Please model this.
Amino acid sequence: MHRGWKALPAVAVLLAAACGTGSGGAGGTSSAVPQEEAATIALFLPESKTTRYEAFDRPLFESKVKALCPACKVLYGNADQDAAKQQQQVEAALTQGADVLVLDAVDAAAVAPLVNQAKQKKIPVIAYDRLISGIGYDYYVSFNNVRVGEMQGQALLDALAAKGGTGKGQIVMINGAPTDPSSADYKKGAHNILDGKVQIGKEFDTPDWSPDKAQQQMEQAITALGRDTVVGVLSANDGMAGGAIAAMKRAGYTELPPITGQDAELAAVQRILTGEQYMTVYLDIRAEAEKSAELAVALTKGQGPAAPTKVNNGTADIPAFLLDPIPVTKDKIKDTIVKDGFYKVADICTPEVKDACAKAGIQ
Model:
């Protein structure tokens, strides 16, 4: 793979049947009492509109748990972007005797009482992908999210420079859900790069990371700014980029301005090859899911492997494993996404994209 854990050699993070002493927990969270092999691990994902969760995160996590602990049971819940539904799912798992919770929160602040319930039962909690705020817990596994935003911002500046400079026109920023703290990090990173270098005509926070809402926002921006004024779009992920592109096509753009993304969704990779989308940020979801599974299994055994860094969530310093993201433009697809086997060439190079694949050297 092309990434390693921040400040930690790759070999050191392969826990297998990890040895460790004590808990890596923050804020006084206790290590799990050693369990029998038939432990129960609960995984909660936030939504299904973003392709990655059902296509990658869930199966990769479940497969790694099975490999490390064949007798372990995985309880699974997808909240469909409904915080109340996620609360019900977590409470049901606690009632069913879950030994470890791996939680990708719909609302990072609202789940704090659920984490507190788990702590009271001495059940370890891993915040998966999104940092949970307001309480201490055992681990946080994610990516360097500020860096993601910086990569998106820099890619957009590069694309604008290649088209004649950043002093012309205005850009539109379509950020992620305000309930997701990762969104704030992406936004911060993008502004770190863009502020003072390009004019931001319109900026939106997008509830639920919804592509449909992103399309509506882009339509509003085009109406307010004028079609010829919009020279670029900073979209925080690929799904919303698809929505923005649909809006621009509907508005009659003969040539789409450069637009960013994140997650390396298959449709986005194909759009990059055909020139509709400029770039995506490739996240090694396999490493994220497998690391979380390794930690969860270790915690069922009362082990707390040391984390290479800590992230403050406003209340506590959370032991964290952070992956480095990779920006991917057309010329990088072969050496990242294809090389890693994230998608097969046959999946990418459908008949509609075959010629574009050949031009990019993807056979």
